[in-house]
């Protein structure tokens, strides 16, 4: 006669639940990933707490996650022997919206930013740690039986997702950890099939560092009684169905792109594939492994979450310690997701200790370098990918100019801006592009800060420079003005804000020269046409040049790539 108490869900939970069920209906499979991910978190938490209190692990050897099927009862049970939940934790974690991310999500819904509930897509939901509720996509009733490690009492939480849950004491012999029993809905019968679950585990949860076990195929004898009421009395032999080793400890050659992508979804809560990743082992006076991801899009609450930095998990010798993005990465790289696993830090390292550690300082320096290397590589080899990155995080990266004096030159190299030659604000160039196009007389980089694209483009200070054919970088975003206080030099060239202070126009040639050049160009047009026809596709283009003084013509690789020295060299060769 256990006493059963009934509690109402917090109003918000009901709302989240409805959103989850409706928006993820066509994406049912993800519930398993979410629940296995929670079980894995629970095992990691226990391992972490056991560092200070080894007795917590006393009654159980290996940490495992078991998937148990009962076709007759139509239930799927996900069981772990991790940290478990106390009565209060069951109420708090499964009955309220405690996560600040979810809070913000709901607040923005209320503010009408996403007025119609129908348009909430799977990606958004996934970013807010509403994982547990995804169980209701496939189940119309859920029983959660749990014992907190080190506690004597165990509890059962039950709900059918209709706004209420109940709590009652569980039998005294309930093992440590949590068992979620899902009573599957009519249309979720697929998940009663052993092969279906195995394939989902392999696809989504292969990287989970703990063994995920399922019943081994029974040797076709033993036609005895089945356990009553789905109680796993005569427990079947279990076999491990995943790799069960931390993904980042495996060698790159053993890992496929799909492995990396699945792991990304696990660490980031992002449903979309990452843009890129970098996986490295460093050995020397610091030994650590890092696996860092660049997301392809900014999380929904990315800007709001500026002061709550997460996304980089710190492990010490394979044991999860804490989310340590703040200590391990500079703020301007806060879009990076992933893990760092150190062999040298003490297992009992605290947040305070991390803040002061020289070792951590070195790891942070190395990670920063890795990310910048990776960005440079993408910028160089995959410009389209880089544009995707830039659209999502370019403004964040700009903070690096201010924040990271030591890497300022490298950050500057990664920045992209429209210029006076751009037809729209999205047509951007790098500082290197700009330098490559500088006219012969110019020895400084000119930029202009203004409030908005149109204000920048039509700025009166541009006229004199335009008349001289001088290109100007147009910085029109909000952060640019702040950043420009830190722009002094790039590639040995001074950066000059033409909106502030006077420019020595004389050294750039006169406007009349420019007008004369245009006249010359017009006059030469028929000659250019003749040459083009004569040379055919042996040349890319024939153009009138203002740069040659004595020679009649020169051969150019590509106008914008051409350095002054090269031109002079060619001139001296009489080309
Ligand atoms: P998240 O995993 O992002 O925190 P979830 O909705 O998936 O959000 O889970 C909510 C909370 O419920 C977790 O933070 C955790 O405290 C608790 N929880 C869920 N599943 C388990 C489990 N198997 N063992 C222990 N605690 C759990
Ligand atoms: Mg979760």
TrEMBL record:
It holds the Pfam family HSP90. Residues 27-188 form the Histidine kinase/HSP90-like ATPase domain. PROSITE patterns: HSP90 (PS00298). It is found in: Cytoplasm. Residues 1-351 are annotated as: A. Keywords: ATP-binding, Chaperone, Cytoplasm, Nucleotide-binding, Stress response. The keyword Protein transport does not apply. SMART domains: HATPase_c. PANTHER family: HEAT SHOCK PROTEIN 90 FAMILY MEMBER (PTHR11528). Homodimer. Belongs to the heat shock protein 90 family. Molecular chaperone. Has ATPase activity. This is Chaperone protein HtpG.
